[in-house]
Amino acid sequence: MPGPTSSTVEYTTVAAEHVHELEVKRSRFIAYLFRTADEDAARTAIAELRRRRHDARHHCSAFLLGPDRDVQRSNDDGEPSGTAGLPMLEALAKRECPTGRADLSDTTAVVVRYFGGVLLGAGGLVRAYSQAVSSALDGAPLVRRRRMALFTVEAAHADAGRLENELRSGGTTVLGTDYGPRAATLRLAVPDGPAVADGIAARLATLTAGTCTAVAAGTAWVDTPGGVVP
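Above: the chain's sequence. Below: its structure in token form.
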């Protein structure tokens, strides 16, 4: 949920786990990208990968979280200070997304290194870790998330299916329909904004001849339908 002073309405995140391997002078740098909603999820992803790749020498990590990207952490995991985690974090933070903006968030990167016997030096490590994350992002599927206003609408069972289809065809996101003993409840999400309540009220009045009304149910961050980009 956005903070009360947040001006952010959209941002980008990775759609799913993605892996990319880079070899530099016989050292293997395997970059993993995870979608993580909060710091606990980020640290869990890092810990689980450490167990999966327990034979690697280093498990360097970086993550940025939140619509305003206000949580940013990095860890060199035994590499010389500033040569791994920070370059990885910068690769995430400076990544220009398909929107043309650097707004990637809710993303954790872990680069697992298997040492190949050749020392790379500080500059070589910085380049390798940064490139590993950047190359992983080149192939990762991304998704747009938008702050949406939530509403519920009660409708008769016989009308719910038609109303849901008409709302969807008109561009309204229907998160689902719950069928209770007396009525169906549609859960809607529309882009948040000052006139959003008036807009959904007018839309419902047109579709139902004023028989259905929308009840505000707060806001939430929702994946944009069709928002996944390669």
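Residues 1-5 have pLDDT under 50 and may be disordered.
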